[in-house]
TrEMBL record:
It is found in: Cell inner membrane. One of its GO terms (molecular function) is transmembrane transporter activity. Its main location: membrane. Part of the tripartite ATP-independent periplasmic (TRAP) transport system. It is a multi-pass membrane protein. The keyword tRNA processing does not apply. It comes from Azohydromonas caseinilytica. The complex comprises the extracytoplasmic solute receptor protein and the two transmembrane proteins. One of its GO terms (biological process) is C4-dicarboxylate transport. Keywords: Cell inner membrane, Cell membrane, Membrane, Transmembrane, Transmembrane helix, Transport. It holds the Pfam family DctQ. This is TRAP transporter small permease protein. The chain crosses the membrane at residues 21-47, 53-74, 95-119, 139-158.
Length: 178
């Protein structure tokens, strides 16, 4: 093992810890969302009024926790995948297709991160606002997408490396549809 690959391996392990933190943040947001909705329902049930902003907060929390959880789920192999064709092909062909899929996904996430970043900057420059119960700059909604697509792109590159260095076969992911 070279010093370079050892450094990348350490970086990969640190990256995994970051993704675990993102997954925990998503779980915390889901917990807060549940508490908020229960509080709103409880307030109505006991004729204490309601929390008119609860649904909007839940909407934003759902959006954010989806982006926060995605890289962690990808790392864990708990994303949805259709691998029936991969499992029917010879192992080396499946392995090569896995590499190609990770490369394509990394490129796609990079393009989406760049487009989202550009949209966030344009929104900030225009001073666009979200006008609902809460009023705030629109770029606040776009920036997490830019950041998380960048995180996903990096994770796909790490997946590509792990696939390259691993057995020449299809991955044994946790949520296979086959």
């Amino acid at each position: 093992m070279t010093m370079h690959s050892d450094a990348i391996g350490r970086l990969d392990r640190l990256w995994e810890r970051l993704l675990q933190g993102l997954g925990l943040a998503a779980c915390a947001l889901i917990g807060l969302m549940v508490l908020l909705i229960c509080a709103d329902v409880g307030a109505r049930a006991f004729a204490l009024g309601n929390l008119p902003w609860a649904a909007e907060m839940a909407e934003y929390a759902l959006y954010l926790c989806t982006f926060l959880a995605a890289p962690w789920l990808l790392r864990q192999g708990r994303h949805v995948r259709m691998d029936m064709v991969l499992r029917a092909l010879p192992a080396t062909v499946s392995w090569a297709l896995e590499l190609a899929a990770d490369a394509l996904a990394a490129a796609t996430c990079t393009a989406l991160a760049a487009a989202s970043f550009k949209a966030a900057i344009a929104s900030a420059e225009q001073g666009s606002l979200v006008l609902k119960i809460f009023v705030f700059p629109e770029w606040w909604l776009v920036a997490p997408a830019a950041a998380m697509f960048a995180v996903l792109a990096v994770e796909f590159l790490f997946r590509l490396r792990r696939q390259w260095r691993g057995p020449r076969a299809v991955r044994d992911e946790a949520t296979s549809a086959a």
